[in-house]
Amino acid sequence: MDASTVQTGKPMTRSSYVERALFMMGDPDTGKSKQLRSMFLDWRLGTAGKIPSANNVRNSYPLGNERRLYLRLTSPHEAGDTMKEFLDTCAGQMQSGTGRWCRWNFAGALQVSQANNLPPGTEVIEKFITRFAPERVRAVILSPDRSGIELETSDLRQLIQDLRSLTGCEVMMVDATSLDANGLMYADFFDFT
What we know:
Elements: H1 3-8, E1 17-26, H2 32-37, E2 60-64, E3 67-72, H3 76-79, H4 83-93, E4 103-111, H5 121-132, E5 136-142, H6 153-164, E6 169-174, H7 183-188
């Protein structure tokens, strides 16, 4: 018996293998989910290069034979999740499954500031890194946002500094005033060719 069997009395399920994680960061109603949706311009996601308008898009997409993307359009802050609920939901969605081994990738929305049951987005990313140990992490800051509003300079500097302090976290800032200008760039983060 391994250590997990001794502690719990039953074998632990295999944890997910996460290659890459992309976090779309902004304040509420700044266009985070619209920017994530723009990744559908990439034909690999099966929409013939068209951004879906339906609210109920699937949350899992194949990126190859043994790679999948878990897409979460709603920020856990806006959903009212606790940290445990958010991480457990991610783990449940990114199950390796039985038999076939799968490498998972994640793309999701996060609020910059603390809201409801969750701390600021940087702390959420830190906990995600601790739980899943992705090979690469990228935080995308929307400034200006979809309405053309830029983050305050002092807030932006602190956010970038906080994100850069996280192990292996890349930081980029994009102009989110256009719905489809950045989608292929986001999708390229999940291109393994």
